[in-house]
Design goal:
By secondary structure, this protein is of the alpha+beta class. It has 2 domains: 13-70; 73-155, PGBD-like superfamily/PGBD (Muramoyl-pentapeptide Carboxypeptidase, domain 1, Orthogonal Bundle). It contains 4 helices and 5 strands, in the order βββββαααα. A 5-stranded antiparallel beta sheet has the order 4-3-2-1-5, with no helix packed on it. The longest helix is centred in the last third of the chain and has 17 residues, at 137-153. The radius of gyration is 17 Å and the shape is elongated. The chain starts with 12 loop residues before the first strand and ends in a 9-residue tail after the last helix.
Length: 162
């Protein structure tokens, strides 16, 4: 993934460096992303050591001090397939629903035939991806990327900053 291709999601971590060595010196919790008046992605974060209090802050996605992002392992480290159940499956189903691949009635938290078909249909839109109905890390990363784009381009989510 190229720099600035990933649009962080709420709950992600944002890593910063303030030295020439590029060492991680600061971490913030992503609250949300928005577009400014010029269409630039702005990342809104919560920081806990500035210098001794919690505060909100905002950085452009292309800020040179941003090293990158981390995502909760519950999603990134989980491959989901038929028979799985739980919150991670429900998250997957909600994402597929938001992207138009799965109906509301199938938001059950159980990975069944409808979910497998929706994952396969989604994977078929990914260039070079085998549409096997298994929600691996690449599938989940692409879904997260597309969900972030949908959120940023949905008018009711626009927060124009002056």
């Amino acid at each position: 993934m190229k720099k600035n291709d990933y649009i962080p999601r709420p709950g992600d971590w944002m890593f910063f460096s303030y030295n020439a060595a590029g060492d991680t010196e600061h971490v913030a919790l992503v609250e949300y992303a928005s577009l400014d008046a010029q269409g630039k992605v702005m990342v809104h974060v919560i920081e806990g050591n500035n210098p001794s209090s919690v505060q909100r802050n905002c950085f452009s996605l292309d800020n040179s001090q941003v090293l990158g992002f981390g995502t909760p392992i519950r999603v990134a480290g989980t491959t989901m397939r038929s028979g799985n159940q739980g919150d991670a499956v429900l998250w997957l189903q909600q994402g597929l629903n938001a992207l138009g691949f799965l109906g509301d009635q199938h938001l059950t938290g159980a990975f069944n035939g409808n979910t497998k078909a929706a994952v396969s249909a989604f994977q078929a839109t990914m260039p070079g991806k085998n549409a096997n109905g298994v929600a691996d890390m690449a599938t989940q990363e692409e879904m997260s990327r597309r969900l972030a784009i949908v959120e940023l381009t949905t008018p009711e989510n626009w927060l124009v900053e002056e």
